[in-house]
Specification:
It contains six helices and no strands. It has helices at about 5-35, 40-55, 60-80, 90-100, 115-135, 150-160.
Length: about 160
Amino acid sequence: MNHKEDRAFVRQFSGVIAAFVVLTIVLIFVARAMQPETEGDESMLDARVEQRIAPVGAVRAGEAGAEALAEAQAAIDTGLAAEEVVIDGPGVYNGLCAACHESGAAGAPIRGSEQMAARFDEKGLEMLVSNAINSLNAMPARGANPALTDEQIQAAVEYMLQ
């Protein structure tokens, strides 16, 4: 390459860079014109930020904590009393218990097997229900569903014994 070609290249390259700089400045002004600044909405933005970073729960102690706990328990009791609890032994069994009691996983007795009948003869229905409610060996309490009632657990155990 000679000296003339080098100058032509530098001139063209400088022109391209200058064009990009001008284009960038124009795009900045266009973007600012399209999205005007919101001066009055800062309080709304601050409120949304505060809502997003607010703690999920709180720790309460003493009388205030006891009152809050009593209110929460009353709300739970009222909600449970308002709902009609469906006692469906096969539904509970198929939803939770079958995962282990159909395959015998972790030593779980298989539904309707001789091992299950032997456990029933040895411990009785009340003890089997108590074990299902409170957990035994690898079996979680209430089949890992604390919302199940004692009656639902008993219905599932009775279904397993069939």
